[in-house]
């Protein structure tokens, strides 16, 4: 779907691999670029009923006037732009970011048998977002399902964060299976930015080196070690404080900001 901006999904089929952290990092860098005038409005879309991404943007699950669930629960009539009815403003620390937030009730959409539910997010964003806008989507860490497919149908690009351990390896493999099914059916234009090493500690790691080599050997150019996200304690600090990583000035924060920026640029977002 053209004309609805760049929409980047963060997806793995394993939890604990930095999926929501990646979504927040990409949003922070996109917001900085928006403030600098290189991109338009930044949108965050949370499809994970746990609401981790929403909470970091300052919107608590259980206390929302409108949500992603409301959009996906609408009767399927094919209208564009309906996301405008449920989008919320992020907290002051994230000013300028607009959010389709998650709440626990969003989990009910997994068993919602309504025809066309998987297309509602894409239609909802089309007519709301312009070509210069950027959207970041946080998908739940599960195999397929209607929420995952909704996110992948709405996305133009998808990034797969993978910790260099067995969870990261399995999560990447299974995510690719689901992504390829969506590419073959609902969204043939969906682009895979790559499998990105996530929360990578400094120094040598025998297991990490072995997993990295396995991913490179198995997936070739899809494995993007040039987009590695380092592990730094400041990331957990900003998550707790619910502020963008770009608001911090330490060397570690700068390293993370640059890492998220490289990924965003690889997804085609203007610098």
UniProtKB/TrEMBL annotation:
Domain AAA, chain residue ranges per copy: 8-192
Protein name per UniProt: ParA family protein
Organism: Streptomyces salyersiae
